[in-house]
Write a structure and sequence with these properties.
The protein has 247 residues and is of the alpha/beta class. It has helices at residues 15-27, 47-51, 55-60, 67-70, 94-103, 121-124, 144-161, 182-196, 208-219, 226-240, and strands at 6-10, 33-36, 62-64, 76-80, 90-92, 108-112, 129-131. It has a 7-stranded parallel beta sheet. Strand 1 (6-10), helix 1 (15-27) and strand 2 form a beta-alpha-beta unit. It is globular, with a radius of gyration of 20 Å.
Length: 247
């Protein structure tokens, strides 16, 4: 069985667009949709007609209050955005993302932003990859369903091209461990910040947000597995203890 990406709609505005995104997903065999803080609430009566029969996607859709909560159990997170300035994350296209979904074990989530303004900076910071489409720079306007269908189509196309030996195969734990889920990375980041803040690491205050963003970027690079995260947390816990008096 191949990996299927989770489609995460972040703060979508119109029920019709959620329905059209569901239709695009099911066209290529994707069924897991997560919705973060939809503007008009959920369920939305406008979504069903626009889904044109993709009811299984809408019926199983889960709603979350934050993007971090929606991807907490995911080992791979992709942010669909054209904004690259100041970003040190790996950039992939829909085809590159599709190959990663098929080849890397763990849960993969693709974030799509609201129709009017896309993903917010704090959403992009959660991702380990930037997913961008090389469209006309003079008219870079994709609607939500179009963006979803590009990702879904490439996932389906790449999957049909790969041989069974190239798809996700179980591996011995000692050989290769899957990346840690986002929830564990968030705990690691918070642990670093808790220890660094009292020591003035984020000063001057005017640079606090930028420094925190850089730290997050380093700690969310692809590859950390759960044992490595646990090891780092253990190190931090040891460093944070009061020094024991000498005997």
């Amino acid at each position: 069985m191949t990996n299927k990406p989770i489609i995460v709609l972040v703060r979508p505005q119109l029920g019709e667009n959620i329905g059209k995104a569901a239709r695009a997903m099911l066209n290529f065999g994707l069924t897991e949709m997560r919705i973060v803080n939809p503007r008009d609430g959920w369920p939305n009566p406008s979504a069903g007609p626009a889904a044109a029969g993709a009811d299984i996607v809408l019926d199983q859709a889960k709603v979350y209050s934050s993007t971090a909560e929606a991807v907490a159990d995911c080992e791979h997170v992709y942010a669909t955005t054209v904004r690259k300035r100041g970003v040190t994350k790996t950039v992939v296209g829909p085809d590159g993302a599709a190959r990663l979904v098929h080849s890397e074990p763990g849960r993969h989530a693709v974030l799509f932003g609201r129709e009017a303004s896309g993903l917010a900076t704090e959403d992009v910071e959660l991702a380990r990859h930037i997913l961008t489409v090389p469209i006309n720079p003079e008219f870079g306007s994709l609607n939500l369903a179009q963006a979803v269908i590009l990702v879904a189509y490439e996932w389906s196309r790449i999957g049909s091209e790969l041989n069974a030996s190239e798809l996700v195969q179980p591996t011995d734990e000692d050989e290769k461990l899957p990346p840690a889920p986002q929830e564990e990375l968030e705990g690691l980041i918070a642990h670093f910040e808790k220890l660094l803040d009292p020591r003035g690491y984020f000063l001057p205050e005017a640079r606090r947000e930028a420094t925190q963003r850089t730290l997050r970027s380093v700690l969310t690079r692809p590859g950390w597995n759960h044992l490595e995260v646990r090891t780092l947390r253990g190190i931090l816990t040891t460093l944070g203890r009061e020094k024991r008096p000498e005997d």
